[in-house]
Amino acid sequence: MVSLVPYDPSFLELSWQWLNDPEIKRLTHTADFTREDQQKWFDKIPSLEGYKIWGIQHDGEKVGVCGIKNITGDDCEYWGYIGVKTMWSKGIGTMAMELIEEKAADIKLKSIWLLVLEENVRGRKFYEKLGYTKEGQDGILIKMRKHIHP
Ligand SMILES: CC(C)(COP(=O)(O)OP(=O)(O)OC[C@H]1O[C@@H](n2cnc3c(N)ncnc32)[C@H](O)[C@@H]1OP(=O)(O)O)[C@@H](O)C(=O)NCCC(=O)NCCS
Q: How far is the CA of 81 from the centre of ligand 1 (A)?
């Protein structure tokens, strides 16, 4: 079972490891950061406007992180990744995304958009399968969107 749980310091520690994996760092388009940068970011999460973050848990194991940001009147930006690479392609991302879409619908958002690297074939296929369609492209980043609330 997949659940979205509070992003606590244990996820912060795991994120340090996950995002420093060269493949995950590249696929998530993550800039270099230090432990201190990460701690400063964590400390200001409660005060960030239009920003929600969760840990992804699968059968009790912490496996990834996801969130929505840039929450405006009717849309938001999704981001997320599964940090435990042996857990890729097992349906966990799909279930996490369904939970995110429920949370977005609960706060009456009408659509979700996201940015994915052009080279991230798995990611692009994943979002396409879930109903996200290309809306535009800015350099190496493709923007995709799905309408969730008619
Ligand atoms: C992208 C990611 C969230 C997808 O989650 P996942 O749990 O691995 O994906 P799922 O098992 O739910 O797969 C759903 C669909 O995604 C696509 N997909 C998944 N793995 C794939 C692979 N290895 N190759 C191609 N397509 C793949 C398929 O369309 C799949 O549907 P199918 O099972 O019917 O073929 C996850 O793999 C991940 O975090 N990867 C690394 C970081 C990353 O790329 N994050 C996104 C940055 S924008």
A: 9
Task: Tell the residue nearest (CA) to atom 20 of ligand 1.
Answer: 89
Q: Ligand 1: does its nearest atom lie under 6 Å from the Cβ of 113?
A: no
> 46: domain CATH number?
3.40.630.30
Q: Could you read off the pLDDT tens digit of each residue along the chain, which spans 150 residues?
A: 999 999 999 999 999 999 999 999 999 999 999 999 999 999 999 999 999 999 999 999 999 999 999 999 899 999 999 999 999 999 999 999 999 999 999 999 999 999 999 999 999 999 999 999 999 999 999 999 999 975
d(C-alpha 96, C-alpha 31), whole Å: 24
Q: Is 21 in the pocket of ligand 1 (CB under 6 A)?
A: no
Single pTM value for the model:
0.96
C-alpha of 39 from chain center: 19
CA of 88 to the centre of ligand 1 (A): 6
Q: Residue with the nearest Cα to atom 37 of ligand 1?
A: 88
Number of domains within the chain: 1
